[in-house]
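Figure caption, in words: inputs first, then the predicted bound structure.
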Amino acid sequence: MPGLPFKKAVVATICLATFAYSAPAGTLVASAPSSTPTAPYASENPNGMLWTEQEDITPEPIRGTLGATILGPQNVPMDLQNADLLAPPSTDSGTVGNAKWPFSLSHNRLQTGGWARQQNVQVMPLATEMAGVNMRLEAGALRELHWHKTAEWAYVLKGSMNIATMNFNGESFYDTVNPGDLWYFPPGVPHVLQATADLAEGAEFLLVFDDGDFSEDSTFSLTDWLSHVPKDVLARNFQTTVDAFDRIPGKELYIFPSTPLPKASSPQGNAALPYTFKASQMPVTPLSGGTVKIVDSTIFNVSTTIAMAEVTVEPGAMR
Ligand SMILES: *[C@@H]1O[C@H](CO)[C@@H](O)[C@H](O)[C@H]1NC(C)=O
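Bound structure (2-acetamido-2-deoxy-beta-D-glucopyranose present):
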């Protein structure tokens, strides 16, 4: 790219010129105005957050001389959690979209055996390239065999999970993952998830999909397929009789209870590249103020569209 260094140089020059124009007296740039800046200096107010959610106060939309009390109804717990929305720092321009979504506001899908709630672009318009699902399975419960056109990355929060998949080469893969471990399924690869009985209450995990338009309600599940194919076709496809399908569910099951399976290995042998990564066993990189673990496709090869930085930040420290 022969043009690039030149462009960089141009950008640097423009920055310098802009800076010189508003520089205060005493600058070494000869052409700078000697006294009045072109704009007032930024406020000396450090503009910190005015309260934390632990405080026992009624928060008000007041910062310095700006704002006024709330006269109408007020959701105090939410206002306590969102100090910089109710009383923003004066440095805010106010045009940036909402950058967080609490799962507490997500509609939850309750099933026998667990639940799932999601965040996607419909509830958080800024997040066009990723969607999230928080899922809970009781011990032995299954998220049935299903497919979707986005990739699926996961982080185990609690308990442990058996996961199984089969890739486009027909190679199967079966593994057990624990808290802090990851899995990743490329787009279109069928997979099934089951909570183990390692914890009596089962497991919970966070799923991330590489498209903000993803919806957990639009995945393609095995029982959904079975219930929408004529039994005559099913029978011929599986080379059996129609009555073999007398007791299939009439609609998608999605999540359902089952018996925890023992840990097992894939009968066909595992795929060459693993679809799980034991991030819980990886050493952290210590930093002043916290730690980090980075897992990208250089060490978790199948995970080509999502990488993780698991960051811990000590109280008061800053990322
Ligand atoms: C995983 O990716 C790294 C970096 O691209 C490469 O050096 C390594 O050989 C890959 N591992 C496998 C098993 O393919």
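The chain has five helices and 18 strands.
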